[in-house]
Design a protein that fits this description.
Helix content: 40-55%
Strand order of the largest sheet: 3-2-1-4-5-6
Strand content: 15-25%
Structural class: alpha/beta
Order of helices and strands: EHEHEEHEHEHEEEEEHHEEEH
CATH class of the largest domain: Alpha Beta
CATH superfamily of the largest domain: Lactate dehydrogenase/glycoside hydrolase, family 4, C-terminal
Largest sheet: 6 strands, parallel
Number of helices: 8
Distance between the termini: 40 Å
Length: 316
């Protein structure tokens, strides 16, 4: 059994994530962490969730704190704190503001829970994963971000709808930035175990429009309802369950890569990784030439943004 802490628990994503995480059989305690001044909301969340757990029959302890030092003893720490973007913002617009928040929290986490897994949700998630890794002093396999996992699920859903099959029959991945330069891996996409480009109907698939839909999905949801909540919340719970269940699943997360993808590395970015109770381990892959080019461009973009953020943090 394990303890999971959620930093940024009074935000939309952080507060919802506590619900599906509580359904994970390996979790017996959840700690909600919010900033000072949010005590009343945290207590309200605790009481509301306790009622929910009682109605569902879930035996999960729930507590809250405004002190990040209380993450001590947690096995997985979900970092969802940060400024939320509006419908007109790119995730990168939040980089420096959120890096300050992540840097301070990660340093404390490294002191209080050095053996934990730090799971970054705060955007821009690839850059924030690098900040969390650097400032926590943890090992690369301990720090990872939500990355392109949800993007991959969004593309998977669109493909399933197009082929009129159950979503479980589709396997696909998006790598690179969780943002505009993301790279869909059509070379690694199958429907019912069949390579997608071997299906005659693949020629009629509106590939470009589908990818643009995935890229715009977050902004579209924000424009319609103010924030993305349920998709990210469920995706977070999936990864927490995969870690604590020691499932050894291959999921596409933001992780530190060295040379696993065509010797392109030294950055945190979305890649396929084996996920288990030790954390994440990127797996070596080989891509089609056009995918390599697109991935390199995505890495160069994230590397440049990451360098700028670290420069800003060093000045302060």
């Amino acid at each position: 059994m394990a303890r999971v802490a959620i930093i940024g628990a009074t935000g939309n994503v952080g507060s919802f994530a506590a619900h599906p995480i509580s359904e994970i059989p390996y979790v017996d305690e959840i700690l909600l962490i919010g900033r000072p001044g949010r005590e009343s909301l945290l207590e309200g969340l605790r009481r509301d969730f306790n009622d929910s757990y009682a109605a569902r029959g879930t035996n999960c302890r729930l507590s809250w704190s405004t002190d990040i030092a209380d993450v001590a003893g947690s096995e997985v720490i979900v970092h969802a704190a940060g400024a939320a973007r509006d419908g007109g913002q790119d995730r990168m617009d939040l980089a420096v503001t959120n890096a300050r928040i992540v840097a301070e929290a990660a340093e404390e986490i490294g002191h209080q829970a050095p053996k934990a897994k730090l799971f970054m949700v705060t955007n821009p998630v690839d850059v924030m994963t690098s900040v969390g890794l650097h400032c926590s002093g943890m090992k690369p396999h301990q720090v990872f971000g939500l990355g392109t996992h949800l993007d991959s699920m969004r593309l998977k859903s669109l493909i399933a709808q197009s082929f009129q099959v159950h979503v479980s029959e589709v396997h696909t991945r998006i790598i690179g930035e969780h943002g505009p330069s993301m790279v869909p891996l059509w070379s690694a996409t199958t429907v019912g175990g069949i390579q997608i480009n071997r299906l005659p109907s693949f020629g009629d698939l509106p590939v470009a429009r589908m990818v643009e839909s995935v890229k715009a999905s977050g902004q579209t949801i924000i424009r319609h309802k103010g924030s993305t909540v349920y998709g990210p919340g469920e995706a977070i719970a999936t990864l927490v369950r995969t870690v604590l269940g020691d499932e050894n699943r291959i999921l596409t997360v933001s992780a530190y890569i060295r040379s696993e993808v065509h010797d392109i590395g030294d950055i945190c970015i979305g890649v396929p990784a084996r996920v288990n109770r030790q954390g994440v381990l990127p797996i070596p892959i080989r891509l089609d030439p056009e995918e390599v080019t697109a991935f390199r461009e995505s890495v160069d973009k994230i590397r440049a943004h990451t360098a700028l953020v670290f420069e800003q943090l060093a000045w302060e």
